[in-house]
Write a structure and sequence with these properties.
The protein is mostly beta strands and 337 residues long. It has 1 helix and 28 strands. Helix content is 4%, strand content 47%. Strand 22 and strand 23 form a beta hairpin.
């Protein structure tokens, strides 16, 4: 028998256009399409570097979206854009045709960029003292200011991260006053369409400060510290589990030990007023881990210790008189990694 062949005509799609004004992290891709046979049933959009024709290199890929579509789609701001990178959009549309057959046709658009202006790099001034004073200038109100410190001069760790309420921010670091050269740096960041944008780091500042006094330092915000008055620093030792067992008929004990796991000790702090005692108890209640910065011995600083309390709060009143409110608060602690 004779058969008639009716070849499908593929759909046509216009060259896509992209709206991507500066500072907009959500570029909008637009196109028009018409079926050659049947109806438009689906579309797919890629955004990829302008130098690439490989869909696997796309920064954003919608996948196949069923339905005739509207010819407009917006990329999410969370796409891993590179500021000022040359990009292009690729659109492919699909149609019905024959029996369960789908034809496709695609087109590349002109190049465009996704660009933004990052926050300005802030200025930084560091002054030696106990604690060290850090002043960050040139910040924008509402931006988040991040400050880091390298207590060993090499490894950066967070000092604080705070929202700017003025164009200058001043914080202190009791940990940085350790008698060695400490580096400090800062940057600021803003949120654009839900995406964090950060400035470059400021010029690093190096400070060597002589420690003075004893401090408890918050572990989360290390620019938050409470100056305390130690009375004794006792029961210092190494944290290590050691057991000795004596088997039946053994001629000597068997000793098993765990690896050493830092230091332990007991610190007794004095408060002169009921308000000081309340502030110290509140500090210990609100924090499970904090840093102990001990007073120097003969001008030689102690290593700051990240510690956790291992005893409930308790206190002693030294004299039962109407005019005396000196309390001693013992704190048992173990070092934390």
């Amino acid at each position: 028998p004779e058969r008639a062949l009716y070849p499908d005509t593929p759909p046509t799609v216009s060259t896509p256009t992209v709206s991507s004004p500066a500072g907009d992290l959500s570029p909008t891709v637009s196109w028009t399409a018409s079926p050659g046979t049947g109806v438009i049933t689906a579309h797919r959009v890629w955004i990829l570097p302008s130098i690439s024709n490989d869909a696997s290199a796309a920064l954003w890929d919608t996948g196949v979206i069923q339905g005739p579509g509207t010819g407009v789609i917006t990329a999410p701001p969370s796409t891993p854009w590179t500021n000022g990178q040359s990009l292009k959009a690729w659109v492919r549309v699909y149609q019905t045709g024959g029996v369960s057959k789908r034809e496709g046709s695609g087109a590349f658009g002109a190049t465009f960029t996704v660009s933004w202006t990052p926050p300005a790099t802030p200025g930084l001034t560091v002054t030696a003292g106990s604690p060290v004073q850090v002043v960050v200038s040139g910040v924008t109100i509402g931006n988040v200011v991040q400050i880091e410190q390298a207590l060993d001069g090499v490894t950066w760790t967070p000092l604080t991260s705070r929202t700017a309420t003025a164009t200058t921010m001043t914080v202190t670091s009791a940990l940085a006053a350790n008698g060695t050269a400490v580096k400090i740096r800062a940057r600021q960041g803003s949120i654009v369409e839900g995406v964090p944008m950060t400035s470059a780091w400021s010029t690093e500042q190096t400070v060597t400060a002589t420690p003075d006094g004893c401090w408890l330092v918050d572990d989360t915000d290390r620019a938050t510290a409470l100056k305390v008055s130690p009375v004794t620093d006792t029961r210092r030792g190494i944290v290590q589990g050691i057991t000795a067992t004596y088997g039946l008929g053994a001629t000597q004990a068997r000793v098993d030990s765990t690896p050493q796991a830092g230091e332990r000790g007991e610190l007794v702090l004095a408060t002169d007023t009921l308000a000081e005692r309340a502030a110290l108890l509140a500090w210990l209640k609100d924090r499970s881990v904090w840093w102990i910065v001990m007073c120097p011995d003969d001008g030689q600083p102690h290593r700051p210790i990240r510690a956790a309390r291992v005893s409930p709060p308790e206190w002693e009143r030294l004299a039962q008189t109407a005019i005396l409110s000196i309390y001693h608060l013992p704190i048992s602690w173990v070092e934390q990694a």
